[in-house]
Amino acid sequence: MAASTAGESVIETRALTKRYGGGQLAVDGLDLTVPAGSVFGFLGPNGSGKTTTIRMLMGLIAPTSGAARVLGEPMPRATRTVLPHVGALIEGPALYGYLSGRDNLIRYDSADPAADPRTRRARVATALDRVGLTAAAGKKAKAYSLGMKQRLGLAAALLQPRRLLVLDEPTNGLDPQGMREIRSLVRELASDGTTVFLSSHLLDEIEQVCTHAAVMARGRLLTQGPVAELAAGARGRLVVTTPDPGDAARVLKERGVADLTVTDDGVTGEPPAPGTDLADLNAALVAAGVRVRGFGVERASLEDAFVALTGEGFDVAG
Ligand SMILES: Nc1ncnc2c1ncn2[C@@H]1O[C@H](COP(=O)(O)OP(=O)(O)OP(=O)(O)O)[C@@H](O)[C@H]1O
């Protein structure tokens, strides 16, 4: 197994394609790069091919063509060496309702031939603690809320140290409180350097928790990269608030700011190219006698980015 080094990608696919037996092209030429240490959001409406991709990454189904590497190893060929380093929560955890949360984890741990039985109880206790289920550990799993079941599934994925966590729609069906809990848990898991790859059809969820994202639609990758750049690349706007919008527009135009719109109380335009110092731009306005009340780049949302890319709204109903 390749050793982990900074800058390495944990998941890498090249022209990954899956056509199902019925002829349905579910994933179409996917080139995905998931950097080590990222919280990577795999975003797309229902039916866009996220689950199919995850199943190929986990070696559960074979691609029709193309290649996938996970932790530097080819999948599905290296499934048996790769999967012990990957914690996965796909399509909800399989739990025994009549067993307690703790006993469910003991069962999971016992099914792992590499897990030392002598340290089992301690491992289970640590995993329960990490997901905040210690107090409820003795309760039967069938009495758990959906959010608690998801957390128990995460605990199962965390019984062993992992380099990668793959979570398929981890907040699906949860109420806002449950979603918050899972989000903060994901942040916490990522803080020790574990790469987290999570799929979601919720744009704001990805914005809140992910450092990087890829956007899928109809089996194809629309874009990928750091979340801040994806959003900024779309529709970030330079916003200057001033009682002298005409003069401000003239100065900004001279300075190469494109797509200017003059409003009653200011000017907006395309943010200047990376490398341009915003302070210089502001100083130029002031030097030209423009009275600047506000100056900054307004962040675009991922939703803006999606709309800009597809020309359509992000239809979560698929
Ligand atoms: N086993 C299968 N056989 C045939 N077609 C399939 C199969 N599984 C999925 N599909 C189709 O492939 C496309 C992509 O589905 P997939 O489940 O990967 O999307 P998704 O983005 O994960 O959506 P969801 O969030 O609804 O699971 C859909 O059109 C789906 O109907």
Report mean pLDDT, rounded to a whole number.
87
Strand content: 15-25%
Look at the structure and name the CATH superfamily of the largest domain: P-loop containing nucleotide triphosphate hydrolases
Oligomer: single chain
**Discrete helix count:** 11
Q: CA-to-CA gap between the ends?
A: 38 Å
What do you see in this structure?
There is one protein chain. 33% of the residues lie in helices and 25% in strands. By secondary structure, it is of the alpha/beta class. The chain is elongated, with a radius of gyration of 24 Å. The protein has eleven helices and 15 strands. It has a six-stranded mixed sheet, sandwiched between helices. The model has no long low-confidence stretch (mean pLDDT 87). Helix 3 (101-110) packs across helix 4 (120-130), helix 5 runs parallel beside helix 6 (176-191) and helix 8 crosses helix 11. It folds into two domains: 9-228, 3-Layer(aba) Sandwich (Rossmann fold); 235-299, Alpha-Beta Plaits (2-Layer Sandwich). It has helices spanning 50-57, 79-82, 101-110, 120-130, 146-157, 176-191, 203-209, 227-235, 245-254, 278-287, 302-310; strands spanning 9-19, 25-30, 33-35, 39-43, 65-70, 73-75, 86-89, 164-168, 195-200, 212-217, 220-226, 237-241, 261-263, 266-269, 294-298.
